[in-house]
Design brief:
Blueprint: H1 21-28, E1 32-36, E2 39-42, H2 44-63, E3 67-68, E4 74-76, H3 77-83, H4 85-88, E5 94-97, E6 103-106, H5 111-121, E7 130-139, E8 154-164, H6 167-187, E9 192-197, E10 206-214, E11 221-226, E12 232-234, E13 256-259, H7 266-273, E14 281-288, E15 291-298, H8 305-311, E16 317-319, H9 322-329, E17 346-349, H10 351-354, E18 359-362, E19 368-373, E20 383-384, E21 403-418, H11 420-424, E22 428-430, E23 436-438, E24 440-447, H12 450-456, E25 460-461, E26 464-465, E27 476-480, H13 486-501, E28 506-508, H14 515-525, E29 529-533, H15 535-538, E30 542-547, E31 553-557, H16 561-571
Parallel strand pairs: 3-7, 15-17, 17-20, 27-28, 27-29
Antiparallel strand pairs: 1-2, 4-6, 5-6, 7-8, 8-24, 9-10, 10-21, 11-12, 11-21, 13-19, 14-15, 14-16, 18-19, 21-24, 22-23, 25-26, 29-30, 30-31
Helix pairs in contact: 1-12, 2-6
The structure holds one RNA strand of 77 nucleotides.
Length: 573
RNA sequence: CGGGGUGUGGCGCAGUCUGGCAGCGCACUUGCUUUGGGAGCAAGAUGUCGGAGGUUCAAAUCCUCUCACCCCGACCA
């Protein structure tokens, strides 16, 4: 492609509203433009990157037995009402009415559509397993779009759905997808880690996320992983063993109410009573689908809201506001405790609290706390369930190693859906005995537009992008220093044709620009290999060959250029 | 939805407090000179100052309403 014939509007100046380096680079190098909040246009270079990555995904999905289909992004609301997600997925779903005033949704994921498809056609166990996927646009009306393609409202996703007859077969299918995912991301030039994750609105039994670990500030997720074994989980999901070595009293002491003037926070109370935070138990008031819940957490730990949300099986969970706290505890925020709450407040206790004896809680009275409180004797809990947020320094639940914290960008996910959708939407088959069963389903996503941007968080320098060759829009950038030199132009044309004849993708910067402009644009755009044609080397019948990722260049005779490019490309990431 | 902020030429911004010719840099057009890392000189084109209403002799500037976008939080791939 000739630069003069394509559309690559590079920008000299930084765009102020781009936070992430990867977002900044895509804007500056002329890959994307923004149309509105979370709405992006993909320019010719980005289109090629998307195609490159899509093809990698397609190849690996096909290799793993996937069958490509396309399902409309539009879906009648009835299907979503049937699965029950019309109500649970909430405001994130784009909804609209057609001209007949029928309720429609723009799909953010396609479990309903694909299960509908299969439920009509699938009859026998002989048709299983089945693996259907598509690469297609998704809409999610994100509450706060940001980070460019990382969290847009419209994005492209590869979503696959599998149907199996039984758990043994499903386990093989799931592992097949996991293997395919590692292969895909390796080919795209990044190493990802598979972590356990919460299933969220997707529902189902278990889920994993594929994370690119980043050192930049681009992490949108926090990963907890073990230094010793392979345990890794999204912090939302992460389990841990408490490392604190606490002295637990043998005897239960009598309760004692004390004044704690001005001490509402954990810090203030520990300072006032001169005790360690681990002797305190904080009572956090939440509203779960409108019903009050009190979560009891040891004073030195933080609550994991996802764990709480799952424990109470709520669709919506939010912290109680001060009025609600007053209503249910009878005291201002800061003095809530498990004793004397209004009767309809459900009390959940973290296991770390359950182990404590003679702990300190709020008295449900302004500026008062109660000492020597004991679970069972002084109050009762609805459940004891893990509610604490894992943190660096905790102990691995699998091997006893130390847990550390990393920032990650989610580039893919896999969900074990079980029979949630096959039951509600009727994807059932007859087994060898003629008995009917719902399919065991899985669903698997890869962000097609997000992943290339995530890749950029790893591949850049102060001059611009440095693409891995597998998803670069072109392999080679060809630059004659001066378009006014007939010799240079003649050589450039010759090389341009040579490369194209050999199926090497090349971007030929044929603009009548100064060398500096071309070099800077080339570095910004980030193609893996640059060929420079200038008078100095041309006198010896040679041109310069340089990798974007390396400092040194080599001189290559024009007739050797194809071989030299191929050899260099082989060496590059 | 809550808190904070910004809307001025294609892009980046100043001007707003204290009302008085709508400016700067980059990009763009033309010419000359230059030509191995974002050239120089000269001449030019480009604006409903986000929108509506109001105050005033006079509004980018003050007032009211409104829209869009950004940042922090709740949500999430």
């Amino acid at each position: 492609m000739r630069w003069s014939q394509t559309y690559i509007p590079t920008l000299r100046q930084q765009q102020s509203d781009a936070e992430l380096i990867s977002h900044q680079l895509l804007l500056r190098a002329g890959y994307i433009r923004k149309l509105g909040a979370g709405i992006y246009l993909y320019l010719p270079l980005m289109q090629r990157v998307i195609e490159k990555f899509s093809n990698i995904v397609r190849e690996e999905m096909n290799r793993a037995g996937g069958l490509e289909i396309t399902m409309s992004v539009l879906c009648p609301a009835e299907l979503w009402q049937q699965s029950g997600r019309y109500d649970t997925i909430g405001k994130e779903q784009m909804r609209l009415k057609d001209r007949h005033q029928h309720d429609m949704v723009l799909c953010g994921t396609h479990e309903e559509s694909v299960t509908y498809l299969v439920s009509g056609e699938l009859k026998s166990y002989k048709q299983l397993p089945l693996n259907l996927y598509q690469i297609q646009v998704k809409f999610r009306d994100e509450i706060r779009p940001r980070f460019g393609l990382m969290r847009g409202r419209e994005f492209i996703m590869k979503d696959a759905y599998t149907f199996d007859a039984d758990e043994t077969s499903f386990a093989k299918t799931y592992q097949g997808m996991v293997d395919a995912y590692f292969a895909i991301f390796r080919r795209a030039g990044i190493e990802v880690v598979k972590v356990e994750s919460d299933t969220g609105a997707m529902g189902g039994k278990a889920a994993h996320e594929f994370m690119l670990l980043v050192d930049t500030n681009a992490g949108e997720e926090i990963i907890i992983n073990c230094e010793k074994c392979k345990y890794a989980a999204n912090v939302e999901k992460a389990e841990f063993t408490d490392p604190a070595n606490l002295k637990i009293d043998n005897e239960l002491k009598d309760m004692e109410k004390v004044d704690t003037p001005g001490a509402a926070t954990i810090e203030e109370v520990t300072a006032f009573l001169k005790v360690d935070a681990s002797r305190l138990v904080k009572t956090l008031m939440y509203m779960a689908d409108g019903k009050p819940v009190a979560a009891l957490i040891r004073g030195d730990r933080d609550l994991n809201e996802i764990k709480l949300k799952n424990a109470v099986k709520a669709n919506e969970l939010e912290m109680a506001n001060p009025e609600q706290v007053q209503q249910y505890t009878g005291a201002p925020v800061g003095f809530a405790g498990p004793i004397g709450l209004k009767e309809n407040v459900k009390i959940l206790v973290d296991p770390l609290v359950a182990k404590l004896k003679n702990f300190i809680v709020g008295a449900n009275e302004n500026e008062k706390h109660i000492l020597n409180v004991n679970l069972g004797r002084d109050f009762k809990a609805a459940h004891t369930v893990d509610l604490s947020l894992a943190r660096e320094g905790d102990i691995c639940p699998r091997c006893g190693g130390r847990l550390i914290k990393r920032d990650g960008i989610e580039v893919g996910n896999t969900f074990m859906l079980g029979t949630k959708y096959s039951e509600t939407l009727g994807a059932k088959y007859l087994d060898a005995e003629g008995k009917e069963h719902p399919c065991i389903m899985g669903s698997y996503g890869i962000g097609i537009t997000r992943t290339p941007q995530a890749v950029l968080e790893k591949y850049f320098d102060d001059k611009g992008i440095i693409w891995p060759k597998s998803i670069a829009p072109y392999l080679v950038e060809l630059i004659p220093i001066s378009m006014e030199s007939p010799e240079q132009v003649e050589t450039a044309e010759k090389i341009y044709n040579l490369l194209r004849d050999n199926n090497i993708e090349v971007l030929y910067d044929d603009r009548p620009e100064r060398a500096g402009v071309k070099f800077n644009d080339a570095d910004l755009v980030g193609l893996p290999i640059r060929i420079t044609i200038g008078d100095k080397s041309l006198k010896q019948g040679k041109v310069e060959l340089k990798a974007r990722s390396e400092k040194d260049m080599e001189l290559v005779a024009v007739e050797d250029i194809v071989r030299a490019v191929k050899k260099l490309a082989e060496r590059l990431n």
